[in-house]
Amino acid sequence: MNIRKLTSRLVAGVMMALSIQSLAAGDHINADANDVAVKGYDVVSYFQTSGPVQGRPKYSASYQDAVYYFSTASNRDTFRASPASYAPQFGGYCAMGVALNKKLDVDPMAWRIVDGKLYLNLNKQVQKKWLTDTEGYIATAERNWYGINSLAAAELNAE
Questions:
Q1: CB–CB of 26/63 below 8 Å?
Q2: What is the pLDDT of residue 158?
Q3: Helix, strand, or coil here: 96?
Q4: Which of 38, 87, 127, 154 lies 20 to 30 angstroms, CA to CA, from 32?
Q5: Cα–Cα dist 135/155, whole Å
Q6: Which pTM does this prediction carry?
Q7: Residues 89/27, Cβ–Cβ less than 8 Å
Q8: Is the pLDDT score of 25 beyond 50?
Q9: Which pLDDT tens digit goes with each residue over 88-132?
């Protein structure tokens, strides 16, 4: 094979890989069609005594390809100062699901703060199971997340 054909095939392969990667760029965050994360709940409020409350679009901030809503300007500003401290773990996907190599949606009311980090679950029933071995499920999910974080949820969950 001559150098020109080999170079052409190599360039085509790289372009294809880049286009596939860019299609999956947003799959590391669980967000709706408008890129809103956590179904619009104020992620800072999970860390407050009042507990989770719905955010408002007028108080929003972007982080890792997602839009987060907040109930107050103060909460938005708190988030902006340290977004990694408040954003949910595993891109906002169900923590138990990630432990099972899945990317499942969440119920914003099925949540828990563990070691200063926000974890969400599919629903209260799944959360009940997750709470039986939170530490173990988190460890498994952390290992799994690096292998599945860039995969599309539909593709991953079809397996």
A1: no
A2: 85
A3: helix
A4: 127
A5: 27
A6: 0.83
A7: no
A8: no
A9: 999 999 999 999 999 999 999 999 999 999 999 999 999 999 999
More confident residue, 19 or 136: 136
Which pLDDT does position 6 carry in this prediction?
Answer: 42
Maximum Cα interatomic distance, the chain, rounded to a whole number of Å: 68
Task: Report the distance separating Cα 49 and Cα 62, nearest Å.
Answer: 24
**Mean pLDDT value of segment 64-74:** 97
Q: How many CB atoms lie within 10 A of CB 54?
A: 14
130 vs 59: CA distance, rounded Å:
32
**Alpha carbons 54 and 112: distance in angstroms, whole number:** 17
Q: What whole-number distance in Å separates Cα of residue 85 and Cα of residue 118?
A: 9
Q: Is residue 152 classed exposed, middle or buried when 0-12, 13-18 and 19+ CB atoms within 10 A define those classes?
A: middle
Sequence-ordered list of residues with C-beta below 8 angstroms from that of 53, at least 6 positions apart, any chain:
41, 42, 45, 71
